[in-house]
Amino acid sequence: MNPLKHVAIIMDGNGRWGLKYKNSRNAGHKEGVNTVQKIIKASVRNNIKYLTLYAFSTENWRRPKKEIDYLFNLLEEFLLNKIESLHKQNIKLKILGSKKFSSKLNKLLNRSEKKTSKNTKLQINLALNYGSKSELMNAFKKIKKNRERINEKNLGKNLQTRGIPDPDLLIRTGNTKRLSNFLLWQLAYSEIFFEKKLWPAFNEKDYNKIIKEYRNIKRNFGNI
Questions:
Q1: In b/e form, how buried is each residue of 181-200, taking b as 16+ CB within 10 angstroms?
Q2: Which end of the chain is more exposed for a tag (fewer CB within 10 A), N or C?
Q3: Which pTM value belongs to this model?
Q4: Which residues are tagged catalytic?
Protein backbone atom coordinates (compact mmCIF):
# COMPACT_ATOMS: atom_id res chain seq x y z
CA MET A 1 0.00 0.00 0.00
CA ASN A 2 1.50 3.32 -1.11
CA PRO A 3 2.18 5.97 1.53
CA LEU A 4 0.43 9.28 0.88
CA LYS A 5 1.94 12.44 2.32
CA HIS A 6 1.11 15.08 -0.27
CA VAL A 7 -1.95 15.64 -2.45
CA ALA A 8 -2.07 18.44 -5.03
CA ILE A 9 -5.37 19.53 -6.58
CA ILE A 10 -6.25 21.65 -9.60
CA MET A 11 -9.71 22.84 -8.60
CA ASP A 12 -11.23 23.21 -12.05
CA GLY A 13 -14.85 23.77 -13.02
CA ASN A 14 -16.23 26.39 -10.63
CA GLY A 15 -17.32 28.79 -13.35
CA ARG A 16 -18.87 26.08 -15.52
CA TRP A 17 -20.76 24.65 -12.54
CA GLY A 18 -22.06 28.10 -11.64
CA LEU A 19 -23.30 28.81 -15.17
CA LYS A 20 -24.95 25.42 -15.43
CA TYR A 21 -26.78 25.41 -12.11
CA LYS A 22 -26.99 29.07 -10.97
CA ASN A 23 -26.53 31.06 -14.20
CA SER A 24 -23.53 32.74 -12.56
CA ARG A 25 -19.81 31.92 -12.63
CA ASN A 26 -19.40 33.63 -9.28
CA ALA A 27 -21.97 31.32 -7.70
CA GLY A 28 -19.73 28.44 -8.75
CA HIS A 29 -16.70 30.03 -7.11
CA LYS A 30 -18.67 30.48 -3.88
CA GLU A 31 -19.79 26.84 -3.91
CA GLY A 32 -16.20 25.81 -4.62
CA VAL A 33 -15.15 27.23 -1.24
CA ASN A 34 -17.49 24.74 0.45
CA THR A 35 -15.76 21.92 -1.43
CA VAL A 36 -12.39 23.20 -0.23
CA GLN A 37 -13.55 22.93 3.38
CA LYS A 38 -14.82 19.36 2.81
CA ILE A 39 -11.53 18.27 1.25
CA ILE A 40 -9.50 19.84 4.06
CA LYS A 41 -11.49 17.81 6.60
CA ALA A 42 -11.13 14.65 4.50
CA SER A 43 -7.37 15.22 4.22
CA VAL A 44 -7.07 15.41 8.00
CA ARG A 45 -9.10 12.20 8.35
CA ASN A 46 -6.78 10.48 5.86
CA ASN A 47 -3.67 11.67 7.78
CA ILE A 48 -2.37 13.58 4.76
CA LYS A 49 0.35 16.04 5.79
CA TYR A 50 0.41 18.36 2.75
CA LEU A 51 -2.46 19.60 0.59
CA THR A 52 -1.62 21.95 -2.27
CA LEU A 53 -4.53 23.77 -3.88
CA TYR A 54 -4.23 25.64 -7.18
CA ALA A 55 -6.45 28.64 -6.48
CA PHE A 56 -5.28 31.34 -8.92
CA SER A 57 -2.68 31.06 -11.67
CA THR A 58 -0.54 33.76 -13.26
CA GLU A 59 -2.70 33.28 -16.37
CA ASN A 60 -5.97 33.87 -14.48
CA TRP A 61 -5.37 37.63 -14.59
CA ARG A 62 -6.81 37.44 -18.11
CA ARG A 63 -10.27 36.87 -16.65
CA PRO A 64 -12.83 39.70 -16.31
CA LYS A 65 -11.95 42.13 -13.53
CA LYS A 66 -15.34 41.64 -11.83
CA GLU A 67 -14.73 37.91 -11.55
CA ILE A 68 -11.18 38.42 -10.24
CA ASP A 69 -12.42 40.91 -7.64
CA TYR A 70 -15.10 38.46 -6.53
CA LEU A 71 -12.55 35.66 -6.18
CA PHE A 72 -10.31 37.77 -3.96
CA ASN A 73 -13.27 38.94 -1.89
CA LEU A 74 -14.14 35.28 -1.31
CA LEU A 75 -10.57 34.61 -0.22
CA GLU A 76 -10.59 37.57 2.17
CA GLU A 77 -13.88 36.34 3.64
CA PHE A 78 -12.47 32.83 4.03
CA LEU A 79 -9.36 34.05 5.83
CA LEU A 80 -11.32 36.34 8.13
CA ASN A 81 -13.87 33.67 9.06
CA LYS A 82 -11.93 30.40 8.95
CA ILE A 83 -8.28 30.97 9.80
CA GLU A 84 -8.95 30.81 13.55
CA SER A 85 -10.70 27.46 13.08
CA LEU A 86 -7.83 26.13 10.97
CA HIS A 87 -5.38 27.28 13.61
CA LYS A 88 -7.30 25.49 16.37
CA GLN A 89 -7.18 22.33 14.24
CA ASN A 90 -3.36 22.59 14.13
CA ILE A 91 -3.42 23.35 10.37
CA LYS A 92 -0.71 25.45 8.75
CA LEU A 93 -1.24 27.77 5.77
CA LYS A 94 1.54 28.55 3.29
CA ILE A 95 1.19 30.71 0.19
CA LEU A 96 2.90 29.72 -3.07
CA GLY A 97 3.21 32.44 -5.71
CA SER A 98 3.75 36.19 -5.76
CA LYS A 99 1.72 38.28 -3.32
CA LYS A 100 0.83 41.06 -5.74
CA PHE A 101 -2.62 41.76 -4.37
CA SER A 102 -4.32 44.58 -2.47
CA SER A 103 -2.64 45.70 0.75
CA LYS A 104 -5.63 44.34 2.68
CA LEU A 105 -5.36 40.85 1.16
CA ASN A 106 -1.57 40.78 1.49
CA LYS A 107 -1.87 41.65 5.20
CA LEU A 108 -4.46 38.90 5.68
CA LEU A 109 -2.27 36.36 3.90
CA ASN A 110 0.83 37.32 5.89
CA ARG A 111 -1.09 37.31 9.18
CA SER A 112 -2.61 33.91 8.43
CA GLU A 113 0.77 32.40 7.54
CA LYS A 114 2.38 33.81 10.66
CA LYS A 115 -0.47 32.71 12.96
CA THR A 116 -0.38 29.11 11.72
CA SER A 117 3.36 28.79 11.06
CA LYS A 118 4.05 26.30 13.86
CA ASN A 119 1.08 24.01 13.23
CA THR A 120 1.82 20.41 12.27
CA LYS A 121 -1.40 18.45 11.60
CA LEU A 122 -1.77 19.46 7.95
CA GLN A 123 -0.03 22.03 5.78
CA ILE A 124 -2.20 23.70 3.16
CA ASN A 125 -0.18 25.22 0.34
CA LEU A 126 -2.40 27.74 -1.41
CA ALA A 127 -1.09 28.52 -4.91
CA LEU A 128 -2.06 32.14 -5.60
CA ASN A 129 -0.75 34.11 -8.57
CA TYR A 130 1.37 31.01 -9.12
CA GLY A 131 2.97 29.80 -12.33
CA SER A 132 5.48 26.96 -12.46
CA LYS A 133 7.48 28.43 -15.36
CA SER A 134 8.03 31.66 -13.41
CA GLU A 135 8.96 29.65 -10.32
CA LEU A 136 11.58 27.69 -12.28
CA MET A 137 13.01 30.81 -13.95
CA ASN A 138 13.32 32.55 -10.56
CA ALA A 139 15.02 29.48 -9.11
CA PHE A 140 17.64 29.49 -11.88
CA LYS A 141 18.22 33.22 -11.37
CA LYS A 142 18.84 32.62 -7.64
CA ILE A 143 21.28 29.81 -8.42
CA LYS A 144 23.17 32.08 -10.82
CA LYS A 145 23.17 34.98 -8.33
CA ASN A 146 24.52 32.72 -5.58
CA ARG A 147 27.08 31.21 -7.99
CA GLU A 148 25.89 27.72 -7.21
CA ARG A 149 26.08 24.61 -9.37
CA ILE A 150 23.03 23.86 -11.48
CA ASN A 151 21.81 20.50 -10.16
CA GLU A 152 18.60 19.00 -8.81
CA LYS A 153 19.47 19.69 -5.18
CA ASN A 154 20.19 23.39 -5.72
CA LEU A 155 17.17 23.84 -7.95
CA GLY A 156 14.92 22.20 -5.36
CA LYS A 157 16.12 24.41 -2.52
CA ASN A 158 15.41 27.54 -4.58
CA LEU A 159 11.84 26.59 -5.45
CA GLN A 160 8.92 27.92 -3.43
CA THR A 161 8.21 24.35 -2.33
CA ARG A 162 11.59 23.88 -0.66
CA GLY A 163 11.24 21.65 2.36
CA ILE A 164 7.96 20.22 1.08
CA PRO A 165 7.93 16.68 -0.36
CA ASP A 166 6.83 16.41 -4.00
CA PRO A 167 3.16 15.50 -4.46
CA ASP A 168 2.44 11.78 -4.46
CA LEU A 169 -0.90 12.40 -6.10
CA LEU A 170 -2.38 15.08 -8.37
CA ILE A 171 -6.13 15.40 -8.84
CA ARG A 172 -7.65 17.66 -11.48
CA THR A 173 -11.41 18.06 -11.53
CA GLY A 174 -13.48 19.47 -14.38
CA ASN A 175 -12.83 16.84 -17.07
CA THR A 176 -9.77 18.71 -18.41
CA LYS A 177 -6.55 16.78 -18.97
CA ARG A 178 -3.64 19.18 -18.62
CA LEU A 179 -1.32 20.56 -15.93
CA SER A 180 -1.88 24.26 -16.67
CA ASN A 181 1.55 25.47 -15.53
CA PHE A 182 1.19 23.87 -12.09
CA LEU A 183 4.16 22.35 -10.21
CA LEU A 184 5.79 21.14 -13.44
CA TRP A 185 9.04 20.16 -11.72
CA GLN A 186 7.46 18.74 -8.59
CA LEU A 187 4.92 16.54 -10.42
CA ALA A 188 7.54 14.55 -12.34
CA TYR A 189 6.62 11.24 -10.66
CA SER A 190 3.19 12.02 -9.22
CA GLU A 191 0.24 9.77 -9.98
CA ILE A 192 -2.32 11.83 -11.89
CA PHE A 193 -6.09 11.44 -11.69
CA PHE A 194 -8.37 13.43 -13.99
CA GLU A 195 -11.85 13.65 -12.52
CA LYS A 196 -14.89 14.38 -14.68
CA LYS A 197 -16.84 16.11 -11.93
CA LEU A 198 -16.63 19.90 -11.69
CA TRP A 199 -14.99 21.12 -8.48
CA PRO A 200 -18.19 22.20 -6.64
CA ALA A 201 -19.66 18.73 -7.24
CA PHE A 202 -16.54 16.90 -6.02
CA ASN A 203 -17.03 15.40 -2.55
CA GLU A 204 -15.34 13.37 0.17
CA LYS A 205 -16.58 10.08 -1.32
CA ASP A 206 -14.94 10.94 -4.66
CA TYR A 207 -11.76 11.98 -2.86
CA ASN A 208 -11.58 8.79 -0.79
CA LYS A 209 -12.19 6.66 -3.89
CA ILE A 210 -9.19 8.24 -5.64
CA ILE A 211 -7.03 7.86 -2.53
CA LYS A 212 -7.95 4.18 -2.28
CA GLU A 213 -7.10 3.63 -5.95
CA TYR A 214 -3.81 5.50 -5.53
CA ARG A 215 -2.78 3.38 -2.55
CA ASN A 216 -3.08 0.22 -4.66
CA ILE A 217 -1.12 1.43 -7.72
CA LYS A 218 2.22 -0.24 -8.38
CA ARG A 219 4.68 2.66 -8.42
CA ASN A 220 7.98 1.83 -10.16
CA PHE A 221 9.80 5.18 -10.39
CA GLY A 222 11.61 3.96 -13.50
CA ASN A 223 12.21 0.46 -12.12
CA ILE A 224 10.45 -2.72 -13.22
A1: bbbeebbeebbebebebbbb
A2: C
A3: 0.96
A4: 12, 60
Residue 84 lies in a domain: yes
What is the count of structural domains for the chain? Answer: 1
Residue 224 pLDDT exceeds 70:
no
Answer positive or negative: Cα dihedral of 200, 201, 204, 208. negative
Would you say how long the chain is, in residues?
224
**Alpha-carbon torsion (150, 153, 157, 161), positive or negative:** positive
Task: Please tell me the distance from the alpha carbon of residue 197 to that of residue 206, in angstroms, as a whole number.
Answer: 9
Q: Residue 95: left (phi > 0), alpha (psi -120 to 50), or beta?
A: beta
Reported as a single tens digit per residue, the pLDDT across 4-51 is 999 999 999 999 999 999 999 999 999 999 999 999 999 999 999 999
**What's the mean pLDDT in 192-202?**
98
- Cα 100 to Cα 115: distance, rounded to the nearest angstrom: 21
C-alpha span between 147 and 221 (Å, rounded): 31
For residue 52, being part of any structural domain is answered with yes
Predicted local confidence at residue 102, as pLDDT = 94
Tens digit of pLDDT for each residue in 134-147?
999 999 999 999 99
Which residues span the domain enclosing 29? 6-131+167-215
